[in-house]
Every structure is written in structure tokens, then in C-alpha cells.
Amino acid sequence: MSTLFADMKTGDWVAFAAAAFALIGVVWSNIVAQKALKLTSRHRLADFRKEWIESLRKDVADLLSQDTIMLNTFTQLNDLKTATKGADDPSLAQRLLSESVEVIKQREKAKADRLSSYSSILLKLNDEEAENGELIESLNSVLVANNMAESSKARTVVIVKARALFKREWIRLNSELKT
Fold first, then answer.
1. How does pLDDT run across 89-113, given as a tens digit for each residue?
2. pLDDT tens-digit profile of 119-142?
3. Cα gap 75→81, rounded to integer Å
């Protein structure tokens, strides 16, 4: 092997050095490309996780909002029922009845939207994870609440559980970006 290099002329050394540097350049660019690909993949995954968190946050907020609308319609219907009983004027009674029908339509729409948000949440969560199961359980409590006090208590629990889940996921997202 030493005779191989001993017999090389200056031009051969230059060609050998150029080939060696080219090989080093190819290897180095491959290493850099692999790191860039890994970093890009990590950021893309983080973007998906962030979108998932925001989508889940919106679904939870929508469900709670629709639940509030539903509860308010019960109060409105009770008020309209009371006003209708005391209405001596048939045109007033008719107007109150029409308002009641509109409130019922509003309640039914809120009920359907609430169910849609709930279904979306269920599809986004893995109920085998303890915190996710706790959030789902608290959402179920909101859905079956029979009065304003029960619903208010259940919604507070949902907010606490959801915040804990969102915090956990943000921490997970940040740790993925750091590694």
C-alpha cells in the first residue's frame, strides 16, 4: 500500500484529494439532509398535534356553549308558559306561543350541535388514557344534568379536566420539539 502512494505524482495527489473531498462532501450533505428531514418531520408532527389540541379545545367550548343555550331555553320556556297563562288577550297568547315554538327550535338545534361536538370529542380522544377517560366522564355528566346547578357543577369539572389535558398535551408537544 505504501508503494501505491509512493508512486503517485502531484497530479494524482490532486485528483485523489479532490475525490476524497467530494466523498466527504457527499457524506456530510447526507448527514445534514437526514437531520433536516428529521427536524422537518418533528415540526410537522408538532403542527398536527397543535391543530388537534385547538380543534379539541373548540369542540369542548362549543359543547359547553350549546349546553348553556339549552339551559337558557328551559328558563325562557318557563317564563313564556307563565306569561301565556296570564295572557287575557288572544293575540298576545298567540305571540307568546310563536315565541315558545322558536325557543323550542333553538333548544333542539343546540341539542343537536351539542351532540355533534360530543361525538367529535369522543373521536379525538383515546378513552384508555386516564385523563381522557376522566374528561369523557365529566362530559357525560354535563349531558345528563337535570338542572342548572348540576349542569354548572359538571361544566366546572369539564373545564378543570380539559385544562389539565390541554396542559399535558402542550407539554408533550414542546418536548417533541426539543428532542
1. 888 878 888 888 898 999 999 999 9
2. 999 999 988 888 889 999 999 999
3. 10
Give the pLDDT band of residue 158 (cuts 50, 70, 90): very high
Quick one: angle between helices 10-85 and 90-124, nearest 10? 150
Closest by Cα among 125, 107, 120 to 66: 107
Residues 6+ apart with CB under 8 A from 166: 53, 56, 57
For residues 61 and 159, give the distance between their C-alpha atoms in angstroms, rounded to a whole number.
Answer: 9
User: CA 23, CA 95: separation in Å to the nearest integer?
Assistant: 87
Say what the pTM is: 0.72
What's the CA gap between 148 and 69, in Å, rounded?
11
Q: Answer yes or no: are the C-beta atoms of 113 and 146 closer than 8 Å.
A: no
Please say whether the dihedral angle defined by the alpha carbons of residues 110, 114, 117 and 123, taken in this order, is positive or negative: negative
- Name the residue type at position 9: K
State how far the Cα of 95 lies from the Cα of 13, in Å rounded to an integer.
101
Cα–Cα distances in angstroms (integers) from residue 82 to residues 76, 93, 115, 148, in the given order: 10, 11, 30, 19
pLDDT at position 59 is: 97
Distances (CA, A) of 21 to 10, 24, 36: 16, 5, 22
- pLDDT (0 to 100) of residue 160: 96
Q: How far apart are CA 114 and CA 151, in angstroms?
A: 14
